[in-house]
Automatic annotation (TrEMBL):
The gene is xerC. HAMAP family: Recomb_XerC_XerD. GO terms for cellular component: cytoplasm. This is Tyrosine recombinase XerC. The active site is at R188, K212, H283, R286, H309, Y318 (o-(3'-phospho-dna)-tyrosine intermediate).
Amino acid sequence: MEQFAQHLRVERGRSEHTVRAYLGDLRALRAYAREEGAEDLTDLGLTDLRSWLARQGTQGAARATVARRAAAVRAFYAWATRRGHLPSDPAARLASPRRTRTLPGVLDHVQADALLQSAADAAARPGRHVDAAAETDQHVDAQGEPDLGPGATGEPAGEGPADPPGEVDPLSLRDAAMVELMYASGIRVSELVGLDLDDLDPSTRTLRVLGKGDKERTVPYGVPAQRALDTWLSRGRPQLVTPASGPALLLGRRGRRVDPRQVREVVHRLLARVPDAPDLGPHGLRHSAATHLLDGGADLRVVQELLGHSSLATTQIYTHVSVDRLRAAYRQAHPRA
């Protein structure tokens, strides 16, 4: 499997995220093969592979997950056949389930403004507020155990010493910068947590973003996001930075690079304060940014480039959201609707 992993990295240019996912899929297939009495993946035929994929669906795996597993299997067997490990490719006719495109959940303009205002209000309050203090900032090591950092006790991070009177909470400043930047730019959560200090260009208000497939793009952001970033960088980040911080733009309580789990917790927590807002995660802010760009008249191909979509078809799903809003407004306002 390590040879196949190297093939994915070097010859196919796949990201580490994709490589890990494919290897996990193949390990699951190998476990299934052994359940069925086969000694190795090379002992499986097309019928076996179809049965395994069908089992995934009956066990509740999402269509997108089953489709990825089918892609992993096809890639592995095509590679193994080319390398001479198999006389023929049993997965050549293995089909993926048809993926259904569902409309993404989005915030309306009022809800988005309320979310950003809630984060800004929390950042402006002095002292450590309860929500930010609850962050545990745990990282998981390769064995799956929480890594609490040097000198950690395992107690919640919020039980440390209180901030001096009048001091702003650095996590509140970070949270405000985080949600402003996500909504302003529409970047993915993986792209957000991967940002380094030198990825920001305040003079042009642009980000250098490393997206899927290690594709780099430049994304603009607005004045409110710049203000939030300036405050975080001048008043928040210096309170958290440690030798372990490196060049990371966004830090957790223990000074390490923030991780996607923490970002999800922040977004869910802030959205819970917004009346009638749907319970969305970070990707919901990305959906909202794209939809609001199209609502405002942005060209579809410009939005595609901003979001880092390789296919225009992926971006077009947001046009359906905008058209639905247009129809709703028409039905509400037109006398002959």
